[in-house]
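In this section we walk through a basic example: taking a raw amino acid sequence and producing a predicted 3D structure, encoded as discrete structure tokens. The instruction is simple. Fold the sequence below.
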Amino acid sequence: MRLIDSHCHLDGFSRRGELAGVIERAAAAGVREMIAIGTDRDDWDLNRQLSQAHPGVVHYTVGLHPCSVKEDWESAVSLIDGFWDGQGGSPAALGECGLDRYHLPRENPAAAETIFGWQRAAFARQLELARRRGCPVVVHSRQAFGECVEMIDASGVDWTRVVFHCFSEGPAEMAELNRRGGRGSFTGILTYKNADSVRAAALKQGLDRFMVETDAPYLAPMPHRGKPNEPGWVRLTADFAAGLFGISPEELAAAATANTRAFFRIA
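The resulting token sequence is shown next.
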């Protein structure tokens, strides 16, 4: 069995000297590849270096996460395009980028709207870059699903190259993505007792676009909920999903891996 963790954050493991063990445990669980997701300037170069140090195992992306958007967002976004032209291999995707209302300062509505305006501008600029490059886009959307969809519609980005990572909406929202050609990918939330709507969304999408991720070190699947997550535990979410779809773990892993390879164009 082979699986790809389609979305994880490896910078913390690397800085603490833990990455070798993380990769070893992942391989033992059948997770032979992982995509290290970019969020800000402080992890872009590191993720590229990790992909060079672990060829065929670690792939990387570059993007400005909405929670990393500050007043100087333009200077950060201006650096993204160069990763496609530089040395060391191109990113597998642009992202994660998007919109996040959940983490805005609730105690200061004016500041929240200012920050959200920066988020929208940074997302628009990254969508324009993705449209020009024709690359996949990894979208972060929290309490901003409709606004993200609206902006992607307006951008001209090819929806078949769009994934809403850590999908936590319901089947109606999934239908909106799939109708446009987009998809969602699923974390350990799929295994949580109170996540009926997320499971319904996975079934609504079906196997032909299904992808699985950890979002490590966050959102560990059952029975490890609340603990620091790591890429090897994507196997637990995949095995749970196999039961949800009524197929064997091997069939689920084969479908999810093929979908991930096709979406990110990983050979």
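Looking at the output, two observations stand out. The first helix runs from residue 11 to 15. The chain has a mean pLDDT of 97. In the next section we compare this with other chains.
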